[in-house]
Amino acid sequence: MSLVSGPGRAKAAGSSLSDELQLMVEKHVHYVQSLDKRKDELEYWLTEHLRLNGVYWGLTALHLLGHPDALPRNETIDFVLSCQHDNGGFGAAPGHDAHMLYTVSAVQVLATVDGLDELDRRGKTGRDGVGRYIAQLQNRDDGSFTGDEWGETDTRFLFGALNALSLMHLLSLVDLSKAVEYVRACANFDGGYGISPGAESHSGQIYVCLGALAIAGRLDLVDKDRLGGWLSERQLDSGGLNGRPEKVEDVCYSWWVVSSLAMIGKLHWIDGKKLSQYILRCQDADMGGIADRPGDAVDVFHTVFGLAGLSLIGFPGLEQIDPT
To answer: Residues 95-117: what's their mean pLDDT?
Structure first.
């Protein structure tokens, strides 16, 4: 699955809106299907370090669009398994180092296509080996997780670990209470959460911290009103959402912000209609795909998170998504 941008481009702000305010389902399906057919383009190979993530994003987009079989299941499973290492982890593509983020995407893809049994049958390790790889990346002193053997710590890795382990029913392999305590240490005075203790609040980090607490059954620890206020302030006059104060809007925050609001029961604190109109203005109504902002090139990353945001606010014609 390629992450090549374009070739389409969202209509520029101020252009005719009659076509783009419809969700172009078939165009988006075709766009995702076309991404792995552009191997003669340099950008295809420059984005190899995100290949496995791209498969997850594209596959999720197709499921949201109601076309779960638009990518070949057997080829998808074969590619995922080709990315696995003997230690249980997965790399971005064959030959790439194992990392938490790619391992999480691998588990998510296999779970989505009902392929975890294939991991047990044909993988270099079964799901137990994947679980052990993830578990050994936890710091048992403070509960945090690193992305790989080199030691970078990030709340994204903590959430990813809990997400993948929960899908494989292996949460018992890690110290869940320590992980919860680490998330609590990342909370800020404004109700948000950062990448680590003391780091500024950011919508993406808020999502992963809330997701981790949701999996652990500890959303009771969240100051929902204070956080809901901070998140609702992310909506700008355009209807789009930004990631933190004084930044421009970006379609990807249609997922990070809206899913967070959904998890704390404050989804009604933003204008869903204005947000849906913004996302639809970022479509390429001719060739499919969604961009970060009107007038920019489309890509699979913004396509899936735009669709996910629309799903969360109940836009018709999309499958329902779980906010975690």
So the answer is: 98
pLDDT number for residue 39:
85
| pLDDT band, residue 17 (cuts 50/70/90) | very low
Q: How confident is the model at residue 19 (pLDDT cuts 50, 70, 90)?
A: very low
Residue with tokens 């383009």: 41
All residues at 6 or more sequence positions from 184 whose CB lies less than 8 Å from its CB, including other chains: 221
Q: Is it the case that residue 120 has pLDDT exceeding 50?
A: yes
pLDDT digits (tens, 9 = 90+) for 251-289: 999 999 999 999 999 999 999 999 999 999 999 999 999
